Amino acid sequence: MKTYLNGRLVIFSAFYDDVYCDRIFRKLYNQIKWLDKTYQNADGSIVHLPRLTANYGERSYNYSGMVFEPEPWTDVMLELKKDAEILGQETFNAAVLQLYRDGKDRVNWHSDDDPCVGKNPTIVSISFGETREFWFKAKNGMGNPLKLLVEKGDVIVMQGTLQHTHLHRVPPENEKKARINITFRNVIH
Ligand SMILES: O=C(O)CCC(=O)C(=O)O
Questions:
Q1: What angle do CA 67, 73, 74 make, to 5 degrees?
Q2: Which of 53, 107, 174, 182 is most buried, taking the most CB atoms under 10 A from its CB?
Q3: Whole-model pTM?
Q4: What residues flank ligand 1, with Cβ below 6 Å?
């Protein structure tokens, strides 16, 4: 276990072994109802998110003025949620999933400070598949950005004020295979 950013970012490296990771990756890849979401630019053009996404759990997830209705928990998701709740010391009622199909897929700088998860949310992030860079930078521009390499089976706990003080991203990279990330969240309103 390693901590960063004043202990608000905790990484449990290789929490799951390779055999488990490969089995869970295949199940999630095949069972999750992956969505190719689009949004409209200011000029009216339709843009595809540069990754596939899904929402699971008991509560709808509300961000950027859009509401995403969840699919019900699957057995695999419930299995992972149990671990996430132990590591995060929190109960979770929602999950956001990302499927990066290759190195071109990415998520740009943002923070998971959506009002629906309240102040100082604990978010537990679990990754399977390809290793990808995961960057953090302070919203006030202080200090150097932090680059981590997240591998399959790693579990990251983000907590305290982190979502209010920092942004994170998964940048595009060359020649990458697929990666799946799940973030467990507690929606309070
Ligand atoms: O893929 C990741 O590791 C991060 C995903 C993420 O930032 C998000 O779901 O908000």
A1: 135
A2: 182
A3: 0.97
A4: 96, 98, 107, 112, 125, 127, 134, 150, 168, 170, 181, 183
